[in-house]
Amino acid sequence: MELYEEDLRVVGADDVLVETICSAISAGTEMLIYQGRFPRDLETDSVISSLRGGFKYPMSYGYASVGVVRELGKEVDKEWLNRMVFSFQPHASHFITNTESLFPIPDSLSPQTACFLPNMETAVNLVQDGAPILGERVLVLGQGVVGLLTASLLNEFPLDVLVTVDQFDLRCHMSREQVQRSKVSHCETLRSNSSDFRQQALSILQQGADLTFELSGNPAALNEAIALTRFHGRIVIGSWYGEKEMEIRLGGSFHRSRIKLLSSQVSTISPDLSGRWDKSRRFDVAWKALERIKPEKWITHRFAIEDATEAYRMLDENPQETIQVIFDYMS
After folding, report:
1. Are 63 and 48 in contact (CB under 8 A)?
2. What is the pLDDT of residue 328?
3. Cβ(9)–Cβ(96) under 8 Å?
């Protein structure tokens, strides 16, 4: 981990200069990079232009920056000046981009809440891919930021049962607080490392979930997902495991279960929806969801960018103490 300075290029005619207020660390993805567990032959991001070039060191990363437009190119509409905006940019105190890469932030949202936009879009995508049905029993494995946001959206559905799961006390506590305010008939939060976890989950889910979301980032959890999903159920896999591997047990009950394993990743929209949905429509849904859920309450730590080494070390060594960690550039 290294902090460095570089000279910004001259602001072009169609560009703007943005001064960053805050940026959020995406703990799951950024820990894979920090720990060197990413695949070297994969494009960094197929959609976000600021992250092109492939996974290789040294690299700047991050994709959740909020700032204020401070300088305009001569062809840019003057209305952009001093607007608070979101952009998919690596962690940096300033950046230059074009207005097509900026998202104006609604006045009702704080900069810190707006940092959650990428993860909220991910949660919206996960729920759309899972397509929960009235009265279903749903299981969410993993209550990091994406898991909490996904569970918060599922709370708004008239489900029969919603079970959320994590290994850490802090995340279980936050999840339990969130699912108490719910349209779901019955909600529970369980510790995945308790000795009778599987028995508890099967009892609450009445012999299995109709729909399971695997969002823990731990490939071993996929075996739990299979074991806890009923006949012809769906498992939406939102975790990115990088180079982490695990033996997945497909030779037992899975073979006869007709369970569907669904890959879900936010860069694209499901072909089943793409005739009616595009990225713009999905972002509109994500902004409105941020207003309802107000995830700023899940920020556990704020660091100056000068203390970035400490921030990543804490996420690596003491993840049980964290949920959302952000860089604050104005402190």
Report:
1. yes
2. 97
3. yes
Could you report the per-residue pLDDT of 145-161, keeping only the tens digit for each?
999 999 999 999 999 99
CATH entry, 15-105+296-328, from 3.40.120.10, 3.40.190.10, 3.90.180.10, 3.40.50.1580 = 3.90.180.10
219-251 pLDDT per residue, tens: 899 999 999 999 999 999 999 887 787 788 888
- Alpha-carbon distances of 227 from 27, 69, 257, 311, rounded to whole Å: 27, 50, 10, 36
Residue 89, token pair as written in the block:
């940019």
Give the Cα separation of 182 and 205 in Å (integer): 17
Question: What pTM value is reported for the model?
Answer: 0.93
| H-run or E-run covering 162 | strand 161-166
Q: What is the DSSP string of 219-262?
A: TTHHHHHHHTEEEEEEEEE----TT-------SSTHHHH-PEEE
Q: Where are the domains of the chain?
A: 15-105+296-328, 118-263
Work out the pLDDT band at 179, boundaries 50, 70, 90: confident
Residues in the chain: 331
Question: Is 109 in contact with 86 (CB distance < 8 Å)?
Answer: no
Mean confidence (pLDDT) of the chain: 92
- Where does 118-263 sit in CATH, by number? 3.40.50.720
Indicate the residue type of 331.
S
Q: One-letter amino acid identity for 89?
A: Q
Q: Which amino acid is at 237?
A: I
DSSP-derived secondary structure letter, 84: E
Percent of the chain with pLDDT over 70: 95
On whether the CB atoms of residues 313 and 99 are closer than 8 A, the answer is no
Say which residues have a Cβ less than 8 Å from residue 134's Cβ, sequence separation at least 6.
157, 158, 159
